[in-house]
Design brief:
This protein has 210 residues and is mainly alpha-helical. Helix content is 80%, strand content 0%. It has eight helices and no strands. α2 crosses α3, α3 crosses α4 and α7 packs parallel to α8. It starts with a helix and ends in a 9-residue tail after the last helix. 3% of the residues are buried.
Length: 210
């Protein structure tokens, strides 16, 4: 019964969502709304479980003085500071997102600079990956290299100074050849999602029960 009940709940919920999508009238439309509300409630509890798991894991790391335990200490302290600031801001200003709140102060002067630093470091990894991917080892790689160079030059102001048609060529590449490949990939992804959804709905795929 420990497996049959979750499988039955998954099948019934999936069936309700599918039927309400094609028949949005009462009572099916209201059934979808109720299901989405239950989903939001369950998602809230799973977030609490995720936070508890995260804090517990890093607390154990600090307690046992494992490698890089100082990073775990920073994470827990930062988490506590933001939770306290958000709670106080919520009571004081009615919303933690108020521009004058301490939470927004921390967000603007801590989170945003950290995000900028992370993305600045990612640019070097992207450049390294692009160098490895775009080496002209064969015809396909050569075409990819030429196309990438044209698009990158066409997207910056210096490209227009070199040749005024560079931006137009880059836009044509993005609008026609790139879009054709993108749509093919999206169709494949959609078919894969449908197949996986049917496997989960019919109980063939049960990895979420483990």
């Amino acid at each position: 019964m420990r497996r049959e009940i979750p499988l039955a709940i998954t099948f019934i919920t999936s069936l309700i969502i599918i039927v309400s999508f094609f028949i949005p009238h009462a009572p099916f439309g209201t059934m979808q709304e109720v299901s989405l509300k239950w989903y939001a409630i369950i998602a809230g509890f799973t977030m609490l479980l995720g936070v508890d798991s995260l804090i517990h894991m890093h607390y154990q790391k600090i307690k046992r003085k494992k490698s890089d335990w100082a990073h775990s200490l920073v994470l827990i302290v930062g988490f506590a500071v933001f939770v306290i600031a958000g709670t106080i801001s919520g009571f004081r200003y009615g919303s933690a997102m108020d521009i004058n709140s301490s939470f927004m102060y921390l967000y603007n002067y801590v989170i945003i600079p950290l995000q900028s630093t992370m993305f600045a470091l990612l640019s070097f990894f992207i450049a390294s990956a692009a160098y490895r991917a775009f080496r002209a080892r064969n015809l396909d790689a050569t075409l990819l290299l030429i196309t990438a160079v044209i698009v990158m030059i066409g997207r910056v102001p210096i490209g227009y100074q070199i040749w005024h048609n560079f931006p137009a060529v880059a836009e044509w590449i993005m609008a026609i050849p790139q879009m054709a490949a993108k749509r093919g990939i999206l169709i494949g992804i959609s078919l894969g999602m449908i197949a996986v959804s049917l496997r989960i709905m019919l109980g063939i795929e049960r990895s979420y029960l483990s």
